[in-house]
Amino acid sequence: MKLLLKWFIMAASILIAAKLITGVAVTGVWAALWLAVFLAVINLVIKPLLILITLPINILTLGLFTFVINALLVWFSSTIIKGFEVAGFFPALFFSIVLSVVSYLLNALFRTK
Q1: How many domains does the chain have?
Q2: Alpha carbon distance 102, 46 (integer Å)
Q3: Strands, DSSP E only, in 22-100?
Q4: Residue 88: what are its φ and ψ, rounded to 5°?
Q5: Using alpha carbons only, what angle is made at residue 93 by residues 87 and 97, rounded to the nearest 5 degrees?
Q6: What is the overall mean pLDDT for the chain?
Q7: Which residue from 15, 95, 101, 108 has the highest number of Cβ atoms inside 10 Å of its Cβ?
Q8: pTM recorded for the entire structure
């Protein structure tokens, strides 16, 4: 039940962040739900490997390169998920930041850990 709630919260966060950021478009709820699943999978599998590979750059930038990795993963997701489109790197960067903030706020509101 908690996993389902987190999935819906992430999809709602995606829809809200897409409304706030120009250059990002989500066609509907189904696209947001699929994007939530896809982002969860690539954040679980691919992101740790990318952080490990880019560890020297990440250390030099005091962790700020992680924002670049998040933006690239969002931009990559737009090529896979139909109904989710990102206009470029900077909209993907701003979308990933806004998505993190909105997701945090919604999770705090519904008290999911």
Answers
A1: 1
A2: 23
A3: 24-26, 84-86
A4: 180, -165
A5: 130
A6: 94
A7: 95
A8: 0.90
